[in-house]
Specification:
Elements: H1 13-33, H2 39-46, H3 50-56, H4 60-85, H5 88-113, H6 121-145, H7 154-165, H8 173-188
Helix pairs in contact: 1-2, 1-4, 1-5, 4-5, 4-6, 5-6, 5-8, 6-7, 7-8
Amino acid sequence: MAKKVKKVAKPRADALRNRERILEVAKEAFTRQGAQISLDDVARQAGVGPGTLYRHFPTRDALLEAVYRTEVERLAAAAKTLSAKKPPIQALEAWMLLFVDYIATKQLIAPALNSLIGGPSQLYAASTTQITGAIETLVSRAIASGDIRSDLDALDLLRALIGVSNVASVPDWPASAKRLVHILIAGSRPTA
């Protein structure tokens, strides 16, 4: 007797919109209020009922992880989008500027991420693979085009980028970090 294979239905468009809206509102709430945000408030601000929020994210930790994973996925996807639309060096520079924004968000929600049961180390490890893959692709493309030095290591550039992005001791650090991105790009150009 043949077994019936159950088809997995695609989520409805409205369910996807609700999920995205919840994630956006939760990101803002986690950055403003930390890990102890009221999930009912998040649902209300997102324009959904609490049941809808809990259907997508059964726990606070699940919501927090989803917010962080979404930010990482957007950053990784931006590498592909930028590569399709911009010349290699411009795509790399634009992605690096987005990385500064990602670090700013990560720093704001870090206290909430640290509240995860077991800590955020597994979450960070998974994100490292996506981010590393994105910058490696962009750097390889820029090297192949001759826009940057052939001896540039993508991980060295990422480390430098993390360094300039982690000077959050001054209020205008993102603007400073973005200026330093332009310097990193200039320093990555081939020598004459």
